[in-house]
Design brief:
The protein is α+β, with helices and mostly antiparallel strands. It folds into two domains: about 120 residues, Phosphorylase Kinase, domain 1; about 200 residues, Transferase(Phosphotransferase) domain 1 (Transferase(Phosphotransferase), domain 1, Orthogonal Bundle), CATH 1.10.510. About 35% of the residues lie in helices and about 15% in strands. The chain contains eleven helices and nine strands. A hairpin with a 5-residue loop joins strand 3 and strand 4. Helix 3 runs antiparallel to helix 10. The longest helix is centred in the middle third of the chain and has 20 residues. The termini are far apart. The relative contact order is 0.13.
Length: about 325
């Protein structure tokens, strides 16, 4: 059975934010499922335990693997799939099955079943305890700066693995980055979004992905590669460090214009306590032209890790790192 990244489901279903969970049994009980996905029902080799979230088109379930008894996240969606849509689904299943990295959510299996007059697609993935990074994007809930850089460096390294397999995420954002500080877990979720939805959505003019995190070439419909993921990671990093998006415009038109033409705000103006070199890294990550960005995630990860010591809180017996001595240290 093929396996696929869950970005297709995230885009198609636009899941509400999942409740934080220490482990599977602590998940809050969601509304009644729409499609009679009752506990105990078997889909593939997985038995449903409970519904975690619902949307207009499908559901997210906690399920158990029949062979191992381990918990899995199982997403279902109903769609009127053409033969092309089914082919893309299966092709992306095979692509996501190649992703095997400790900081990427594993995909175990996927399938398409007939469900009345429509098709029921499903995907079984690794169950991850913790919360996504949307819990840490406000000024009041920000993580320590050095921890933010460590998380982003791990995410950049994970992208190296995905891009080497020919898989571009295309929808990186805080909601697709899971973090559990107690277990030191970082996981990228929802790979495979755009390739599975382009055929159905591009003809209608809808943008695939989340515009605030999308690179200029992605918004313009141009050719893309892994560097659009690095741009998105830069937007997430900016948001985690400042509490705001680099382009927090009210209207869609203003947002798209700013992403295409306006330079991102200097980090030093918003966070003068951080080392200026970090601002330089952010400016490069969010460069308008892909060729002006980092070559790959490995290069970005190295630069972020080199800056971690300069972002650590000063000990009482050390002078506080300032705008000037952080650059020279």
């Amino acid at each position: 059975m093929a396996a696929t990244g869950s970005g297709f489901w995230q885009q198609a279903l636009r899941w509400p934010k999942r409740q934080p969970a220490r482990d599977a049994p602590d998940i809050a009980q969601p509304p009644a499922p729409r499609f009679s996905m009752v506990a105990g029902r078997k889909i593939g080799n997985f038995a449903l335990v409970r519904t975690v979230a619902t949307s207009a088109m499908g559901e997210l379930h906690l399920a158990s693997d029949h062979a191992t008894g381990l918990p899995v996240a199982l997403k279902t969606v109903r769609f009127q799939g053409s033969e092309l849509t089914r082919e893309r689904f299966l092709r992306e299943s095979e692509a996501a099955a190649r992703l095997n990295h400790p900081d990427i959510v594993r995909t175990y299996a996927a399938g398409i079943d007939e469900a009345g007059d429509s098709l029921l697609g499903w995907i079984a993935m690794e169950w991850v305890s913790g919360t996504d990074l949307t819990a840490h994007i406000t000024k009041a809930t920000r993580l320590p700066d050095d921890l933010v850089l460590a998380i982003m460096a791990r995410a950049a390294d994970a992208l190296v693995h995905a891009h080497a397999q020919g898989v571009v995420h295309r929808d990186l954002k805080p909601a697709n980055l899971m973090f559990n500080q107690a277990t030191d877990t970082v996981k990228i979720t929802d790979f495979g979004c755009a390739h599975l939805t382009d055929g159905q959505r591009s003809r209608s003019g809808l943008i695939v992905g989340t515009p605030a995190y999308m690179a200029p070439e992605q918004l313009s419909g141009g050719a893309i590669d892994g560097r659009c993921d690095l741009y998105a990671l830069g937007v997430v990093l900016h948001q985690l460090l400042t509490g705001d998006l680099p382009f927090p415009h009210g209207s869609m038109g203003e947002l798209l214009s700013a992403i295409a033409t306006a330079p991102p705000p200097p980090l030093g103006r918003l966070r003068p306590d951080l080392p200026p070199l970090l601002g330089d890294v952010l400016q490069r990550t969010m460069a308008k032209r892909p060729n002006d960005r980092h070559v790959d995630g490995a290069q970005l990860a190295r630069e972020l890790r080199l800056l971690i010591p300069a972002c650590q809180p000063a000990r009482r017996d050390e002078p506080a790192r300032t705008l000037h001595n952080a650059r020279s240290s």
